[in-house]
Amino acid sequence: MTKIGRKLIKAALLAVLAGMCVLSSARAEVIDRIVAKVNGHIILQSDLDDALRYEALLSGKPLEQFTDDDRRAVLDQLIDQELLDEQMKSASFPHASEKDAAARVAEARKLYAEAATDAGWQAVLARFQLTHNELLAHVEQQIDLMRLVDARLRPQVQIDSKSIEAYYRDKFVPQLKQSGATAEVPLADVSSKIRELLTQQKMNELLVSWLQNLRSESKVTIAQVARPAIQGVQSQ
To answer: How far apart are CA 170 and CA 153, in angstroms?
Structure first.
């Protein structure tokens, strides 16, 4: 081969490589495009993809079954998380430990029959393109957010005895009868559980209101939600 021929081949190869770099860069830009901004903090498509993986694994819902509404709901959760993260900076409470997160992960693991063995569980994680440590870190963050909400909202909730009695009479007893139970359960035996149930319901209402206020006080912009740019993730 002549020197000129070798130069031409080299130039052609460089052109091909340059083109591949441009295409790769374009694909990366699409994958990591901005899907939302929260007070200047950027949420990328890849952040949304990660959140979808966690949601799918922890809920046991196949990722391919997520609808556009599901994806929008997960994006809303990411936005709420950013808003609560800002509140957490000024909060002071014990953060979740690895033990706390491990207990939640163990519950999620029960959703997958093949995860009965460590090798099977690793296969499940690989299917969702996650590692055990990544999953633990995500769960720890979620526990911290729940603790923040509990510390902020629980003191605002007061459940009186009349509310407990009304729930017992109007809901608990009828549901007990519908289940076919014949033995009566005294109010005193379930009053603490009913109180906590009513407390959680009221806290959920307060949380919705709190997040709405945080959004109204913040600058939040949302782009069109794309389908997840996730390759090779399948659920069984």
So the answer is: 26
CATH number belonging to domain 21-158+207-222: 1.10.4030.10
Give the angle subtended at the CA of 153 by the CAs of 148 and 154, to the nearest 5°: 100
Structure-token match 């393109």, residue found: 129
- Give domain limits for the chain: 21-158+207-222
Tens-place pLDDT, residues 12-58: 444 444 454 444 444 444 457 999 999 999 999 999 999 999 999 99
* DSSP assignment string, 77-126: HHHHHHHHHHHHTT---PPPPHHHHHHHHHHHHTT-GGGGSHHHHHHHHH
pLDDT for the residue numbered 233:
43
- Interacting residues of 230 by C-beta distance below 8 A, sequence separation 6+: 49, 52, 53, 63, 129
Distance of alpha carbon 125 from alpha carbon 119, whole angstroms: 10
DSSP string, 148-173: HHHHHHGGG----HHHHHHHIIIIIH
Chain length of the chain: 236
Backbone angles phi, psi at 117, to 5 degrees: -105, 155
Q: Cα separation of 215 and 81, whole Å?
A: 11
Q: How far apart are CA 179 and CA 171, in angstroms?
A: 12
